[in-house]
Amino acid sequence: MYYTYFIKSVKYDFHYIGHTNDLKLRLAHHNSGKSKSTKHYAPFELTAYIAVKTNIQGSDLEKYFKLSGFLGIGHSVYRPYKPYNPNKYWILYAGDAGDISCT
Predict the structure, then answer these.
(1) Strand-pair category, 15-20 with 2-9
(2) How far is CA 81 from the centre of its chain?
(3) How far apart, in whole angstroms, are the C-alpha atoms of residue 10 and residue 77?
(4) pTM (2 decimals)?
(5) Among 17-21, 45-49, 85-89, 91-95, which stretch is predicted with the lowest mean pLDDT?
(6) What is the maximum span of the chain, computed from C-alpha positions, in angstroms?
(7) Residue 39 pLDDT more than 50?
(8) CB atoms near residue 25 (< 10 Å)
(9) Which candidate, 58, 10, 2, places its Cα nearest to that of 31?
(10) φ, ψ at 90 (rounded to 5°)
(11) Which residues contact residue 20 at a Cβ distance below 8 angstroms, ignoring those fewer than 6 apart?
């Protein structure tokens, strides 16, 4: 299982979208400053994630949300790999990181 995830900084007005196959470990990396893109904005809380079957689907969703300017953080350097198809994805969770279950 792969995840496209949405996190926000607890201290700053900063949001980030990414994808991973280990959501708990990735959130721990963001919070410990091991991620170059987010190390100056830690700590983070998970706001939502979307589970998909393949890494390519996770990457496609991340690019879709970044290109669309979702949460006001669009990045023009990303190019869509494939058109977004909402029938391929489903939302499993939306809440605070304390309730996360990735089993």
Answers:
(1) antiparallel
(2) 17
(3) 27
(4) 0.69
(5) 91-95
(6) 36
(7) yes
(8) 11
(9) 10
(10) -145, 145
(11) 2, 3, 5, 26, 58
